[in-house]
Amino acid sequence: MIVPSIDLMGGHAVQLVGGRTLELDAGDPRPIAERFAVAGEIAVVDLDAALGQGSNAEVMRDLLRQAPCRVGGGIRTVEQARAWLDAGTTKVVLGTAAQPEIVRELPRERVIAALDAVDGEVVVRGWRERTGRGIAERMAELRELVGGFLVTFVEREGRLGGTRLDVAAELVRLAGPARVTFAGGITTPDEVAALDRLGADAQVGMALYKGVLDLGDALAAPLKSDRPDGLFPTVVVDEFGVALGLAYSSRESLREAVRTRRGIYQSRERGVWVKGATSGATQELLRVALDCDRDAVRFTVRQHGAGFCHGGTWTCWGAEAGLPALARRIAARLRDAPPRSYSRRLFTDPDLLRAKLLEEAGELAEARGRDAAVWEAADLIYFALVALTREGGTLAAVADELDRRHLTVTRRPGNAK
Predict the structure, then answer these.
(1) Residue 83, class by beta-carbon neighbours within 10 Å (0-12 exposed, 13-18 middle, 19+ buried)?
(2) Contact 60, 49 (CB under 8 A)
(3) 247 has which bridge partners?
(4) How many CB atoms lie within 10 A of CB 276?
(5) CATH pick for 329-406 out of 1.10.10.10, 1.10.287.1080, 3.30.70.20, 3.40.50.1010
(6) What's the pTM?
(7) Nearest to 56 by CA among 69, 40, 37
(8) Measured between alpha carbons, how far is 167 from 179 in angstroms, rounded to an integer?
(9) 232-303 adopts what CATH topology?
(10) What whole-number percentage of the chain has pLDDT above 70?
């Protein structure tokens, strides 16, 4: 799969050639992260920290709230690595600090060792310092201690001349259980697909920024179909992973969906179609993921209107249920509740809502037995969702926040305030 890359200098997204020459300054990285997030995990590299000339930590924390990010650049101690893991990064990428005595102190599955190499020799400290050691030697030392390797062919970085597919298979073999991500010169969908077939990922920057490689084409590159029409079954889910229905995608529809960030599919009769173009039940495309066999797609969307089904229900299996459905009903009441209704009072009277939250929290704390706890928890969750909705929050945002907290590795005592 493709891993889009954002390299940071002075708070801007930049691209360098060979790690030295500034080729382009793309400005604010936040809109770029928004565009790249459809692919899933993003690689974020603090070049200033790697070179010892500053930090982009504040910007990086913003990016962590936009998309899953693996973070690297200037992380040289266990404490720094843990701090980034606690901040919600999916993985830390260690270069100079990728030493056994350091990585042993970190959760293996969330550590990537950066093996940046010039003509096969590993370099560190922003690619400025040679180590005299080869990629294979470093892999042998670390492959049982880290979850992955990032192999960058520095002499090809930013030059759009293709990557080293001739050595990729051997490096994947040498990496053992650790998954390899390759960077440096990757330019075409065919290269992304070839690396994926080897069980490796492609980290890409320059080709995406310059428009040489289309992100939708790169995402679709590993796909294969055994259908006569060449289409890919596409499971459409909402922000909570609830299946809304089944559609089909082609490479053309995928490209357009990623470009416009909308729910766009391939009809078996009508060609490319935009969900909601006539009904108003539009979709914002949040994520695209391929299944393990690379023959099916999952679209994660933010569904609008009555729902996905042409019959007017949220899903093709009927009406929605559970907490997501409750949250949407509360949001609708915020818009439509009559002036003197209880719902309107809750939304407009902060003292009343505060009193109900405290009352229900106390009753849940005192509840004894399963039935009582369920009853009181339902009351508290209802009023909590009212408070959340009133302030412009969403249940999906809460879920994202909890997912980030799950990534924390430093455990707090959890004492009452």
Answers:
(1) middle
(2) no
(3) 234
(4) 17
(5) 1.10.287.1080
(6) 0.91
(7) 69
(8) 15
(9) Ubiquitin-like (UB roll) (3.10.20)
(10) 99
